[in-house]
Design a protein that fits this description.
Blueprint (H helix, E strand, L loop, with lengths): L4 E3 L19 H12 L16 H4 L5 H11 L8 H6 L12 H20 L5 E4 L20 H12 L4 E5 L6 H6 L6 E8 L23 E6 L4 H20 L3 E5 L17 H18 L4 E4 L9 H14 L9 H6 L6 H5 L17 H21 L2 H6 L8 H4 L9 E6 L2 E6 L4 H4 L3 E2 L10 H13 L4 E6 L4 E9 L13 E9 L8 H10 L8 E6 L6 H4 L3 H13 L4 E2 L5 H4 L5 E6 L5 H11 L8
Parallel strand pairs: 1-2, 2-7, 3-4, 3-6, 4-5, 6-7, 10-12, 13-14
Antiparallel strand pairs: 8-9, 9-11, 11-12, 12-13, 14-16, 15-16
Helix pairs in contact: 1-10, 5-6, 8-9, 8-13, 9-10
Bound molecules: zinc ion (ZN) (2 copies).
The site of one zinc ion has 5 residues, from α9.
């Protein structure tokens, strides 16, 4: 094995084969690896050794009786599977049993485990398991060509062996439902799946409200995208969600499912991505791994059913990115000639690794294209609102915010300092805290809504303070330790109330664990809204049914809502009813507003008219 990257695959994996009449067949291994070899970016030294997964590993994710059925149905010369039992375990249709399937599935899981283990242990920086990423398999059911959930097994094993936090990013056209289900309540594994909306595509799940279950709430993230989203839309959604999510979650290890069945030529989906798009996504994942995971990255091949043109090139682009090996300028002609049996003339026509750049025609985006773009943007905004802490949304804005002069919503006043006697001792309250001061203060480790590292939290606060319309109000000890803060922000562009003039959002309020008694939050908020200019403004705030550290607070969602409601009411806010989808979807969500005494009646009316719009459907 050479270098810091390896491929976890060999000829044994060809045994994972549902037969020539099924999209998931043995040919994928040979089609893909033969191109890597022909392009001279892979040789025997790059292959990572692995064996079949043992019962103890598989049972981290699967039930024993399901594994026993797999073994029974897989035995050569076995009697035909009992149809009732086969149906119960999903071993019918797409997943009909084939001889040796048990061993083949164990090898797939073994390859992914070897890749994840080697990267988690630091033996490799990156690893690629091409015949892997069987993301649909459930605890006791085969689904969508997936007999065992190799990624879930490998992640579960590694989070038990090491105290690692894992970010799982699933780019397959289909929702990564099995991996999501495996970690739905696990706070150490954050799964994010970008996929074609389940309204049209198997498996039908992956809606934005599938957020996880305590104590893992908020760690399941879904971005369902419209058919015909294309590269630009897919990349925009990736940028708006995955990068900030990584910044907030602070993973130790990145595991990705790089299914290429979202390609325009793939028979199974309509996302209309291109090889250019996959190359871009690989670059972004690579950067993300180095920026947020100390480089640790395991990529799996996932789905992809155009074995002639798409899968081999997509794997080559991914492996080239991950290994740093340069591909030759053209797809080797010997390889193309060797694929003579390929029924796809387009494969032979494409001598490059990606499609030729298409000249963009001006005005080609018709009303249909605009509508789907708007739908995707609505989805992305909803996901961000639900899955990202407000402070992180500010640091990773959806669109460039307008300059201070253009909005100028937050008027000027002299910075003030006040005092508050808390149960934990005296505190200094300070508004208009400049970024330069925030960078000199320390942040109590008990402030950790989602960002784990106090230094990172301090930087987030400083970045808010640098926003033209962002204000940070802090409570700190006389020694300069920040134990609470309120952030007042421009609402995120494009949201329901964003375009109203003279409206700001209390985007975040947090008090460190250990300082929550003694009314620190109420004192901070009252202090924050005291300055006279707030009488010209409308302030809004929302509290969602879950909170990043709600689990540690020991409060139920309903109790949390009550506490939050009291804190805001004490500062002159009132609770309002709104059908804004991100609030209305859960009864424990809270929406409050404080309308300043000098807000003109017309503006107040404009605000009120937006509270209820009468459509309840999520995007
Ligand atoms: Zn690297
Ligand atoms: Zn797929």
């Amino acid at each position: 094995m050479s270098g810091a990257s390896a491929v976890a695959a060999d000829g044994r994996l060809a045994a994972y084969d549902f037969g020539p009449d099924r999209p998931f067949q043995a040919g994928r291994l040979d089609a893909g690896l033969s191109l890597l070899r022909a392009a001279k970016v892979l040789d025997e030294d790059d292959l990572l050794a692995f064996g079949p997964a043992a019962d103890a590993d598989l049972e981290l994710i699967h039930d024993r009786d399901y594994l026993e059925a797999l073994a029974r149905f897989s035995a050569a010369g076995a009697a035909p599977a009992d149809p009732v039992e086969a149906t119960r375990f999903g071993l019918v249709g797409d997943n009909r049993p084939f001889p040796g399937m048990d061993q083949a599935a164990r090898l797939v899981a073994g390859a992914t485990m070897a890749a994840v283990d080697a990267v988690a242990a630091g033996d490799l920086a990156h690893a690629f398991a091409p015949v892997a990423g069987l993301h649909h398999a459930q605890r006791r059911r085969a689904v969508g060509f997936c007999l065992v959930n190799d990624v879930a097994v490998a992640i579960a094993r590694c989070t038990r062996a090491w105290p690692l936090r894992v970010l799982y990013v699933d780019l397959d056209a289909h929702h990564g439902d099995g991996v999501q289900a495996a970690f739905y309540d696990d706070p150490r594994v954050c799964t994010v799946s970008l996929h074609e909306t389940g309204r049209y595509l198997f498996p039908g799940s992956g809606e934005v409200h599938e957020l996880g279950r305590p104590p893992g709430t908020g760690r399941s993230v879904n971005v369902p995208l419209e058919p015909r989203t294309g590269d630009d839309g897919f990349l925009a959604a990736f940028d708006a969600v995955v990068e900030p999510l990584a910044a907030a979650f602070r993973p130790d290890l990145l595991v990705t499912q790089n299914g290429c069945d979202g390609h325009a030529d793939d028979p199974l989906s309509d996302l209309t991505l291109s090889l250019r798009g996959f190359r871009e996504l690989a670059r972004r994942l690579h950067k993300l791994a180095h920026r947020h995971c100390q480089g640790r990255w395991v990529a799996t091949g996932g789905g992809g059913y155009d074995l002639d043109r798409v899968v081999p090139r997509a794997w080559a682009l991914l492996w080239s990115e991950l290994s740093g090996r340069r591909l030759p300028s053209r797809v080797p002609s010997a390889w193309l000639a060797g694929r003579a049996a390929s029924p796809d003339p387009a494969n032979h026509a494409l001598v490059g690794w990606v499609e030729p750049r298409q000249r963009r025609r001006r005005g080609s985006a018709g009303p249909g294209a605009r509508e789907l773009e708007e739908r995707n943007q609505r989805t992305v905004r909803a996901v961000r609102r639900l899955a990202l802490p407000p402070s992180v949304r500010v640091v990773y804005p959806l669109a460039r915010r307008a300059g201070g002069a253009a909005t100028g919503r937050l008027p000027g006043w002299e910075p003030r300092a006040g005092e508050h006697q808390s149960a934990g001792g005296p505190l200094v309250l300070r508004d208009r805290t400049p970024a330069s001061l925030l960078r000199r203060l320390e942040v109590d480790p008990g402030i950790h809504a989602f960002v784990r590292d106090p230094d990172q939290e301090r930087e987030v606060l400083a970045r808010i303070a640098e926003e033209p319309t962002g204000e940070v109000v802090v409570a700190h000890t006389p020694e300069g330790l920040v134990v609470g803060y309120v952030a007042v922000l421009d609402p995120e562009p494009g949201t329901r109330f964003a375009s109203l003039p003279g409206l700001l959002e209390v985007g975040a309020i947090e008090v460190a664990t250990g300082w929550r008694r003694g009314g620190v939050a109420s004192a901070l908020l009252r202090f924050a809204v005291e300055p006279d200019p707030f009488e010209d403004l409308i302030l809004i705030a929302s509290g969602l049914s879950w909170h990043w550290d709600l689990d540690q607070s020991g409060l139920s969602a309903v109790a949390y809502r009550r506490v939050l409601g009291r804190v805001f009411e004490a500062a002159g806010f009132e609770t309002l009813r709104t059908d804004e989808p991100e609030i209305a979807y859960h009864p424990a969500n809270l929406f409050v507003a404080r309308v300043g005494s000098r807000v003109p009646p017309a503006r107040r009316a404009a605000f009120t008219s937006r509270l209820l719009r009468g459509h309840h459907a999520m995007p």
